[in-house]
Amino acid sequence: MKQVDYIVVGLGVAATAFIKYLLEHQHSFVVINQDFHRASTVAAGLYNPVVLKRFSLVWDARQQLEKMHELFLWYEQFFDKKFIDEMPVFRIFNDEQEQKTWHKKATTHHELVPFLSTDFQQLKIYNDIKDPYGSGEVLATGRIDLRLLIPTLEQYLRQKENLLQEKFRYEDLQIAPNSISYQNLQAKHVIFCEGYHILSNPYFRKLPIIGVKGEVLTIRTEAKLPKAVVKGKEFLFPLSSDEYFVGATYDRDCLDYEVTESAKTELLSGIGKVVDSSFMVLHQQASIRPTVKDRRPIIGGHPTYKNLYCFNGMGTRGTMLAPKMAEILYLHIEKGQPIDNQSDIARFYDEYFD
Ligand SMILES: Cc1cc2nc3c(=O)[nH]c(=O)nc-3n(C[C@H](O)[C@H](O)[C@H](O)COP(=O)(O)OP(=O)(O)OC[C@H]3O[C@@H](n4cnc5c(N)ncnc54)[C@H](O)[C@@H]3O)c2cc1C
């Protein structure tokens, strides 16, 4: 039997955030991951503290941003690679009323003042953008290149023989009060970071995780666009000089991983409203966001099997949320610190566990 402190199941942004603490504090661990339509590497990886529909602040935005920068900077130093790409988000206004609402919030809602610019941009200097009512710039925004970070981490773990690239078999888990065995491994704790696949996990599958399917495109266009996220109904941002990432659809009904013509049409029509050019679709992908009925993450231990932990419910904002949740869960396990009521799995003990 090989003894380890932790087994981590999954390798998306949730596991990546948690593993930072295991590396930093030199815990022994094994990651078991089979990449099946992983949401974190289909996603854009954008971070943005403002809800762009209503111009309101994301829950706990300041603290999440701070922890996010801390964690991904740590990975930048660890791998000597760049993963944080600071980029403005320009929200294109649909009409004058939206412009007025933005201005009012940017000047009178003190919690939004640091994040909403009152200097309205005219993206018309980019001839191919249509924004007759101007655009508002959200500050402190950008993208984490999870499409680079996660494979980089994956390769590192493989080299260190810390990674099993296979499906976790729940039937091979044997649980004793102070340790767990899984095949030839003995661990103190198992952390399940399975994203939407949690619904196959016999220990946590009853939790109220609601899937929201999303599709994204990579396109080529000759339009001249800023190095920024341009957000109309859909959003796009540059991946290279003529390739752009376009996202994303939200579908709560059809929860499979197939790409669809209807999503492609919806995305192209959305960007067609703000960019006056032609587009060539290079690539289309789909995955499922693990959202929660009360829109809060779910972290913490199983009510009966105390050394099995859930790290899930990253929803539509895993990039910003996962780093702070990882720190909370790590300190909870190692130092006994409490988990805040809004994120704690304990809020579902009565309703969703036998
Ligand atoms: C189209 C789309 C666009 C998005 N855009 C953004 C965005 O711009 N910004 C943002 O913050 N968020 C975005 N999100 C949301 C974000 O991607 C998710 O919140 C986040 O990726 C969830 O991360 P996770 O680690 O929980 O799950 P995942 O990334 O899905 O990772 C789970 C991993 O566990 C593996 N796994 C599961 N079960 C097992 C098992 N039994 N054995 C072995 N391996 C297993 C899976 O295969 C996968 O590799 C987007 C999501 C989608 C779908």
Automatic annotation (TrEMBL):
Span of domain FAD dependent oxidoreductase: 5-329
A cellular-component GO term for this protein: cytoplasm
Top-level taxon: Bacteria
Any matching Pfam family: DAO
Sections of the chain in a coiled coil: none
Record's signal peptide: none
Keyword tRNA processing attached: yes
Keywords: Cytoplasm, FAD, Flavoprotein, Methyltransferase, Multifunctional enzyme, Oxidoreductase, S-adenosyl-L-methionine, Transferase, tRNA processing
UniProt xrefs under InterPro entries: FAD-dep_OxRdtase, FAD/NAD-bd_sf
Gene Ontology molecular functions: methyltransferase activity; oxidoreductase activity
A biological-process GO annotation: methylation
Descriptive protein name: FAD dependent oxidoreductase
